[in-house]
Amino acid sequence: MNRLGFAILATLALGGPTAALAQEVLTIGVRSEAATLDPHWTQLSADLQLQEHIFEHLVDLDSASQPAPGLALSWAPINDTTWEFKLRQGVTWHDGEAFNADDVIYSFDRLKAGIEGATASPAFQLAKGGKVWTKVDDYTIHITTEGPYPTMAEDLAMIPIVAQHVVPGKTPSVDFNSGAAAIGTGPFVFKEFSPGNRIVVAKNPNWWGGDPGWDEVVFRPVGEDSARLAALLNGDVDMIDYPPTVDLPQLEANENFRVSTIASDRLIYMMPSYRHIEPYITANDGSPMMNPLRDWRVRKALSLAINRDAIRDRIMGGAALPTRNIVPPGFFGYVEDLQPDAYDVEAAKALLAEAGYADGFRMTIHGPNDRYINDARIVEAVAQFWTQIGITTEVDTMPRAVFFSDLIRGGADSFAGFNSPKFSMSLTGWGTVAGEATYTVSGILETYNAATGGGNGNFGRYSNPSIDAKSVLAKQTIDRDARLALLQDATRWGMEDYSLIPLHFQVNKWAMKAGLEHFPRTNERTLATEVKRVD
Amino acid sequence: MAEFILRRILQALLVLFVMTVLVFFGIHVIGNPVDLFASSECTKACLDEIMVNLGLDRPVWQQYLIFLGNLAEGDLGRSFTHGVPAMSLIWERFPATLELAVAALVLALGIGLPLGFYAGLRPESILSKVIMALSMIGFSVPIFWIGLILILTFSVYLGWLPAIGRGELVSVLGLEVSFLTLDGLRHLAMPAFTLSLLMMSMVIRLTRAGLREVMTSDYIRFARANGVPEYRVLGWHAMKNLLIPIVTVLGMEFGGVIAFAVVTESIFSWPGVGKMLIDAISVLDRPLIVAYLIFVVTMFVLLNLVIDILYSLLDPRVRLGAGAV
Fold first, then answer.
1. What whole-number distance in Å separates Cα of residue B91 and Cα of residue A268?
2. Which among A29, A41, A123 is the nearest to B83, CB-wise?
3. B92-126 pLDDT, tens per residue?
4. Any alpha helices (H) in A164-295, and if so which ranges?
5. Taking CA atoms, what residue in B is nearest to A46?
6. Residue A198 DSSP symbol
7. B238 DSSP β-pair partners
8. Is residue B211 one of the residues assigned to a domain?
9. Alpha carbons A396 and A404: distance in angstroms, whole number
10. Does an H or E element contain A241, and which?
């Protein structure tokens, strides 16, 4: 027995280091597990993050979420309604077949035809603007739209390209998870998908982008925050996403580990509702009252009453960027001179008095408790700040599975076909995935319009015709300078009217062994190609 | 026996039916899954399209009838997020949970029985009191806390055991198991121990109480008077009577351990069905949740049947005839 034990130990001791030398393996502990490798199946970020290692898009997003050449080398509008995309030549699929325009056309067609049972395909990106695609030659594609369409590259950065010679006849999702259809052009090749335990991808030696840096990348889902941290500390994994914010100071002080940081594109904000009577707002004696949030002075008072620096330091462990913008610095549409409101209780009280609410009122605010970093604690803090200026604020937080449905359509309809939120004031977030503000302005500042998709995330139903005009025009303006001016104007007007009350951009952190260096990206994804060994 | 089993199966079908009604309608009260899946840029038209695609645009009772129809054909539906038949997902992960539960059961009996025996034989000794105090702690301290303390101690400080996941797998008769490899055992140790604590405490207390009662009974005295050796008195005659309550309680508990290993599996990232359930609930993957609950109810019913049969083997006084239900 003892001898056997020794033999095992000896093999381990000898086998370990040699194996490590031969193979560069990166093991990443991730918070959420990918459920499918079919890139056209869902829009859940855990899925997209993993799929990005295998499948690619015509347009890449660089680490600041700006468009960069992907499977397309270049693109340009050839007239008001047509974009021309020139594809990269010499790219091969993981099985050796050559990539060309047919694959792109097939991918678009697959999405347009719809995939039975798919929960949320990116097909809506193709439907926007009424896109029609044609193959010109093997490496040229034309996409026409109903009107001028400036954000073509950003849209196509969301559409993964699958192989025409592989996917037809395969079962969506199932055959991707088994590996049979998981054949892409990306830096890594499918190797193993063991649900709940590990997903392994291996280096694609023929990748057009060169050496992806790792022979093998292992993703291990560890949903429990402290367990994920423990796995990093004891060496089960080399790197983790979303390290628990309470442990950040110790991690940052520990020389065996390293923390990478970047402000993300996810805006966290308080969203007022604009009905004349709000269900969760009453006078101090509990009687109904006209909605005070319709007065911009009240909204400004609420904003001034929030100490954003305290939220950053006390709740977020420093991992927040207080803001008054709707897209982060560096994004197209960011407005430099909009700086976060300074904490000023006296000014807030004065504004309330001026609006006729010197004695305050009662309000219940809502938020999710498992969606954004420390979301429930932020809502509690905001409630305390508002109580300080005389608005008796209560808090109700709930799991996202309940929260978002109520937020989007939980309330009694004010008008037919005009879904209204259940809440009167709630904490929510908005991610600007494509690195530019067009769809952020349209999504959260424009008036809700089911037909055009305007105000898609504007659940409070704020409505301001002058912002709408700018936003609608921006969606059709190809000239970048003109569009920038429109977006900045719309943002400035929205913020000066306090249509919503921005708190901060989440700052994302990753923790890893000291021997690694990570170049993080704003869109929250963890990509193995952005991790390098430095020792 | 045959009549008994048949009746049990009919009862089970009724239970299953009631359960599907409760689960199906209950789950439709909570949120709308599409709001979680879809990108925030998805417009009203796009949301509606997804609803149609998933069949969520129909009234709930219609969805339920469709579900029942599929169920009759043995189809429990397809997971929204995975896009894979729900049952195949459950089967894929079930071996991991089963292995964890069996390992916990083995630990509970392997450690619990001897300790309980000792405490029952020498109730006044200090060691017995320590054992009983520990069993009390095992009952009352939350699993979650114990799991994290174990990870902190054995993975982070001592570095002996891995903190997450399941180890190297070996295929035995088509079943993937990890307890046959050293790596697998190292991964299994902490979660199995954590999961076994409650059962172990129960075994200790049941054994001790049972033993103290049995030792004073007449048949033990007669056995001793007959000159039966002590090890046989304890290990055979006393043991047989002791096991009846233990089998009953563990049988029930075992079902619970399988069904609700959720907490342990989440802490240790064990790739079992419990962890899958949690993930499914958080994104409202309705077909998967419903399929899992049906699976669990079926399992409970079967387990109860097995316990009844075991019972009759252990205790000839229990007959599985018309009188016993």
1. 40
2. A41
3. 888 899 899 999 999 999 999 889 888 888 888 89
4. 174-177, 225-233, 248-253
5. B81
6. E
7. none
8. yes
9. 13
10. strand A239-241
Rg (CA), chain A: 25
Q: Closest CB to A430: pick one of B40, B81, B272.
A: B40
pLDDT tens digits for B256-269?
A: 788 768 889 988 98
In whole angstroms, give the CA distance from residue A445 to residue A495. 9
DSSP A97: P
Question: Does A450 contact B182 at a Cβ distance shorter than 8 Å?
Answer: no
Q: Is the pLDDT of residue A471 over 90?
A: yes
Of B37, B89, B268, nearest to A120 by CB-CB distance is: B37
pLDDT, position B260 = 67
Q: How far, in Å, are A323, A393, A415, A418, B41 from residue A462 at the CA level?
A: 20, 22, 14, 13, 17
Residue type, A495: M
B191 in A contact zone (CB under 8 Å): no
* A260 residue type, one letter: S
Q: Put the strands of the sheet holding A72-79 in their side by side order.
A: A72-79, A82-87, A140-144, A132-137
Q: Is B180 on the interface with A (CB under 8 A)?
A: no
Place of tokens 């062994």: A513
Q: Which of B35, B80, B162 sits opposite A404 (nearest CB)?
A: B35
Is B286 part of the contact surface with chain A (CB cutoff 8 Å)? no
Judging contacts by C-beta atoms under 8 Å, the chain A residues touching residue B159 are 234-235
Residue B140 forms part of a structural domain:
yes
C-alpha distances (whole Å) from A503 to each of A135, A307, A430, B248 are 46, 9, 12, 56
Give the predicted TM-score (pTM) of the model: 0.86
Nearest to A208 by CA among A98, A64, A126: A98
Confidence check: pLDDT of A17 > 60: no
User: What's the DSSP call for residue A437?
Assistant: S
Statement: residue A16 has pLDDT above 50: no
Structure tokens at A144: 């026409």
User: Using CB atoms, which residue from B37, B159, B269 is nearest to A43?
Assistant: B37
Can you say how many angstroms the Cα of residue A401 is from the centroid of all Cα atoms in its chain? 18
Cβ contacts (< 8 Å) between A196 and chain B: which residues? 93, 96, 269-272, 275-276
Residue A91: predicted pLDDT: 94
**Model confidence pLDDT, tens digit, residues A224-269:** 888 999 999 988 999 999 998 888 888 889 999 999 999 999 999 9
The rounded distance, in Å, linking the Cα atoms of A314 and A345 is 19
ipTM over 0.90: no
For B83, nearest residue in chain A (alpha carbons): A173
CA dihedral sign, ordered B284, B287, B290, B291? negative
Q: Does B50 touch chain A (CB under 8 A)?
A: yes
- Cross-strand bridge partners of residue A134: A142
Instruction: Confirm or reject contact between B66 and chain A (CB < 8 A).
Output: no
CA distances from A481 to A45, A67, A89, A312, B173 (A): 32, 17, 32, 34, 67
- The two tokens of residue B321 are 């005839």
In a domain, B322, yes or no: no
pLDDT per residue over A437-453, tens digit each? 998 999 999 998 888 88
Q: Which amino acid is at A499?
A: S
User: What is the nearest CA distance from B92 to chain A, expressed in angstroms?
Assistant: 8
Count structural domains, chain B.
1
Residue B12 falls inside a structural domain: no
Q: Tokens 């309604």 correspond to what residue?
A: A81
CA B93 to CA B106: how far, in whole Å?
21
Cβ–Cβ contact B51 with A under 8 A: no
The whole domain housing B301 covers 86-314
The CATH number covering residue B279 comes to 1.10.3720.10
Q: How many Cβ pairs closer than 8 A exist between chain A and B?
A: 190
Per-residue pLDDT, B232: 79
Q: Is the dihedral of CA A190, A195, A196, A198 positive or negative?
A: negative
The pair of structure tokens assigned to B78 is: 């397809």
Residue A252, CA distances (Å) to A255, A259, A511, A525, B42 in order: 8, 6, 9, 21, 39
